[in-house]
Amino acid sequence: MGQYLQLGIVHRLSVSKEKMNSMGLSVEKVKDELNKEVDMALYDLDENDDLVNFMLKDSIVMEQLGNFLQYQYSLYDQNEDSHFESAIQAISEMSYLQQIVGLAEEKRFPCFQNNRIVHDIQVSNWKSLRVEISLFVLFVESKTYMECYSSFLKYLTNVVRESSKHWSLSGVFGCFID
Prior knowledge:
The protein is an alpha+beta fold and 178 residues long. 38% of the residues lie in helices and 28% in strands. The protein has seven helices and five strands; from the N terminus they run βααββαααββαα. Strands 2-3-1-5-4 form a five-stranded antiparallel sheet. A hairpin with a 3-residue loop joins β2 and β3 (51-56). The chain is globular and about 50 Å long.
């Protein structure tokens, strides 16, 4: 199975309690380490017998997701079959985070899907802890597609230009493979 470049929003992080306990890790220590990867102030804690879950706050998603996607999609090279507007429209009709997760899990839109990724975080010099990340995937590029990097490189160029627009030099920033 191939690997894919995936860009998106981390909406859930899950850690095994058994693994945490075997490593002598508290929830606070795990949260501190995860905070090096994502802004943990945006997550709520939810525990069950087996897992510690950090869930993106519903209010953040409901208030910001549509506008965030509109902006991110505007930076990407678009064509008539990009589905960006259709995905934003479908999301805008949702009232709860779980509905949005369900929409992403349907994988109806290439530009808005859910995926689970296994990621290791370093918790000490010699120990790492496995974290399952649930991601709203906004952009996915396969190895086959990556042979034609043009739209992804254009996205990176637009991100740098937009985030650095207070410097006039950002207008001449380019991203190339040679």
